[in-house]
Amino acid sequence: xxxxxxxxxxxxxxxxxxxxxxxxxxxxxxxxxxxxxxxxxxxxxxxxxxxxxxxxxxxxxxxxxxxxxxxxxxxxxxxxxxxxxxxxxxxxxxxxxxxxxxxxxxxxxxxxxxxxxxxxxxxxxxxxxxxxxxxxxxxxxxxxxxxxxxxxxxxxxxxxxxxxxxxxxxxxxxxxxxxxxxxxxxxxxxxxxxxxxxxxxxxxxxxxxxxxxxxxxxxxxxxxxxxxxxxxxxxxxxxxxxxxxxxxxxxxxxxxxxxxxxxxxxxxxxxxxxxxxxxxxxxxxxxx
Length: 288
What we know:
This protein is α+β, with helices and mostly antiparallel strands. The chain has helices spanning 2-13, 27-54, 72-90, 100-109, 200-205, 248-252; strands at 58-60, 64-67, 134-137, 163-164, 175-180, 187-194, 208-216, 219-225, 231-240, 257-267, 276-284.
């Protein structure tokens, strides 16, 4: 009975057991409802973020690392190769009259590459079907003498040139963007030549990329983890590009698409904080 009286009095005067006085009896319910709504919204945002970014983005390491040799010895061998090819072409020399060393040199370097700096050569490749129609960047270093560091250098298919970002510090957040037409062949491999590889000194003195974040049409796609080596570093990916290719007229009417490469982390150079990338190029499908 006493408990019932106490409860009725509490209701009459707006007081409840084990609580502080409440001037507005509906307030606890309103606060609780507002809290639940806020919690629901926050949970939805977190869930959406995890679905959008946490599950789709890939963390990739090179499937192969092919070390490049631009030493004086290698350059001398390439020069000898060029001389042998010239003599073969003019008829002054034939295969049977060459020494085994000369034959081995031609087998080593082949005949489709123009010189030591040539990346894809004159043979058939993914580039027979096209490539990016534009390469742009968020910044680049001003020319120094005869050297320029434009974004196009990152896709000139030449090891000797490089894109170097142009902001102060280590270029974190700086970007290269490759624009492709709708008809471009699909990409299944991204190949990165990290750093300024024209010489060992240029490579070590300038900074190199440690991690690159890749965006497909401005949406996070993958993170590439690069080794600190003068090398071709290949990253296998699921086909990127338009897969519906039977109706060429319809394909031509589709919008361009982009791949963006953003610097996340670097290997610091011995002298300069400038970050260099000599080349980002591709291999893939839809060529033959």
